[in-house]
Amino acid sequence: MAAAAWGRRLPRAWLRSCGPHRPRAPRAAGAPPVTRPSLCCRSAGPGRGRHYRAALCVEPKQPLAVEEVGPRPVRPHEVRVDVHFCGVNFADILVCRGQYQEKPQLPFTPGMEFSGIVLETGTDVSTVKKGDRVIGVSGFNGMAEECIIDQKTLWQIPEGVSLREAATLPVSYGTALLALEHRACTQPGETVLVTAAAGATGLAVIDVATNILQAKVIAAVGSDEKCQLVMQKGAQSVVNYSQGGLKEAVRKLVGSVGVNVVIDTVGGDVFLEALRSLAWEGRIVVVGFAGGTIASVPANLLLLKNVSAMGLYWSRYKEQNFPIFSRTLSSALQYCQQGRIQPHIGAVFKLEKVNDAFLHVIQRKSTGKVLISLK
């Protein structure tokens, strides 16, 4: 359902099999690379170091270009990172279509989360040093071989956690931890229903709810193959909502009591059925609208069972409550190092295949996290 909704909203250019480069005139031998400004390389001053490749959104709703861009000097509080992996999220797709809450100036480089190695630090940087392995949360500029970022939004990767594994953590596990712990206040033994459970965020919710919070998870997915995966990942029960209504399926599992917590990333009718599946004083957390439809909340349902409906805009915590934001990422890294969580990587694409990676996410061709490899 969600995949079909996304497919209907895509321009034909993005549904065609297309290469990563926009047509342009050939460069003469020995001529310098074409330089475009982007969020990770815009500067009034002279650049330093080598040119590097970046994915660029030059025009909304069109395939991304992969071009060489010029660097800029780091400011005193900034860090230059050699990017190894960057996560692909629905937010990246939305911002490239001009449909996200934030609208960067064109051209820009998407990519909210990445892992890599510190290349250079500004004069005032004290949190990391050259050679450190880090994850970063960037404002849509991570899909590039290099990224300049404020030291505040970098976290060191502990020993035993690979760069590839670390790149899966910020958005998916940051969202799961904030949704379950901070927003829903999930308690041990409570029942958690998660929709789109085989996606990157859904699997992270299963992982955190089961292995960190000791909750019981009902995973809602859209195929038999995904049913098998979420059970392997720790869900106690599974619902295939392509085979019938979610509310009735949940009722068969838990009776009329309902579930304590819902983490919903789909929206539309799935959200409404999940809302109706809540127990007395249950909590539903709206994380996204992957199904393409934003539902209206019937206020009478909130009243009848004293339930709470709340939202989670993950990246907004970076500006509004940074201590909590930072603590969730530190916790995710610690849990990963301890082996208490097991991130699931569905597919990895090279940078020149970034448009294929976007289609892979949109069309739900894989489960778990999709990554762009810059190496």
From TrEMBL:
CDD domains: QOR1 (cd08241). GO terms for molecular function: oxidoreductase activity. The lineage of its organism: Eukaryota, Metazoa, Chordata, Craniata, Vertebrata. Pfam families: ADH_N (PF08240), ADH_zinc_N (PF00107). Residues 61-372 form the Enoyl reductase (ER) domain. Belongs to the zinc-containing alcohol dehydrogenase family. Quinone oxidoreductase subfamily. The gene is LOC112921844. GO terms for cellular component: mitochondrion. This is Quinone oxidoreductase-like protein 2.
